C-alpha cells in the first residue's frame, strides 16, 4: 500500500460498473420516454393530417395525406427511439458504446412489444362494438395492411437503427466516477 506524501491527498476512484450488468430500470425509463414522445407527437400529426381531409368529398382522404402521415410516423419513430435508447443507456450506466448499443436495442424491443400490446388491446376494444374493424370489408382491411405494413416495416428498421445509435451516444465511455470529496488537490500537485 502506498503511503501518502506530505501535502497531497489521496483519491479513491470507484471503477466503472460491471460491463455485464444490465439495468431494467433504464430500459423501462427509455420505453416510457418513447411512449410519451410517440403518443404526444402522434396525436399532433393525426390532428394536422385529419384537418386536411375533406369529409364531404367523394374520396375524403387523398393520397398525399396517406404519404404525409406515413412519413410523419417514420420520422417520429426515429426521433422517439433515439432519445429512448440514449436515456436507457445513460440510466443503465453502459460503460462502453457496445453496451450502450445493446441497451438501445433492448429498449427498441420493449417499445415494439409495448406498442403492439397497446394496439392489440385497442383493436380488441373496437371489435366488441357494432362499428370498427370487424365490420370492415376484406378489401379495405387488405389495402390498409398492405400500405400500412410497408410504412411500419420502414419505420421499425430505421427506428431500430436510431435506438442503437442513441444507445451508443448515451454510453458512459471514459468517465471515471469519483467522489467529490476525494479528488486530488491540484494546488499541491506541482
Shape designation: elongated
The number of E-state strands comes to 2
Our estimate of the beta-strand percent is: under 5%
The neighbouring-strand order within the major sheet is: 1-2
Order of SSEs: EHHHHE
Low-confidence stretches: none
* pLDDT averaged residue by residue: 77
Content-based structural category: mainly alpha
In short:
This protein is mainly alpha-helical.
Characteristic key phrases:
64% helix, two-stranded antiparallel ribbon, mainly alpha, 2 strands, 190 residues, single chain
Mind sketching the topology for me?
Layout: E1 13-14, H1 24-51, H2 63-92, H3 97-127, H4 138-170, E2 177-178
Antiparallel strand pairs: 1-2
Helix pairs in contact: 1-2, 1-3, 2-3, 2-4, 3-4
3D structure, described in words:
The chain is an all-alpha fold. It has one domain. Helix content is 64%, strand content 2%. It is built from four helices and two strands, in the order βααααβ. The chain has a two-stranded antiparallel sheet. It is elongated. It starts with 12 loop residues before the first strand and ends in a 12-residue tail after the last strand.
Amino acid at each position: 500500500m502506498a503511503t501518502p506524501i506530505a501535502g497531497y491527498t489521496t483519491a479513491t476512484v470507484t471503477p466503472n460498473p460491471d460491463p455485464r450488468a444490465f439495468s431494467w430500470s433504464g430500459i423501462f425509463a427509455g420505453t416510457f420516454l418513447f411512449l410519451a414522445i410517440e403518443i404526444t407527437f402522434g396525436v399532433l400529426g393525426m390532428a394536422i393530417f385529419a384537418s386536411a381531409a375533406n369529409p364531404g368529398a367523394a374520396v375524403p382522404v387523398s393520397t398525399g395525406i396517406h404519404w404525409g402521415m406515413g412519413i410523419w410516423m417514420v420520422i417520429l419513430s426515429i426521433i422517439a427511439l433515439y432519445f429512448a435508447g440514449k436515456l436507457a443507456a445513460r440510466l443503465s450506466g453502459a460503460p462502453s458504446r457496445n453496451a450502450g448499443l445493446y441497451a438501445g436495442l433492448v429498449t427498441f424491443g420493449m417499445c415494439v412489444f409495448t406498442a403492439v400490446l397497446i394496439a392489440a388491446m385497442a383493436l380488441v376494444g373496437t371489435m366488441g362494438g357494432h362499428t370498427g374493424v370487424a365490420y370492415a370489408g376484406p378489401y379495405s382491411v387488405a389495402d390498409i395492411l398492405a400500405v400500412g405494413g410497408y410504412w411500419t416495416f420502414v419505420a421499425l428498421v430505421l427506428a431500430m437503427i436510431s435506438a442503437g445509435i442513441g444507445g451508443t451516444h448515451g454510453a458512459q465511455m471514459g468517465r471515471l466516477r469519483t467522489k467529490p470529496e476525494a479528488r486530488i488537490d491540484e494546488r499541491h500537485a506541482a
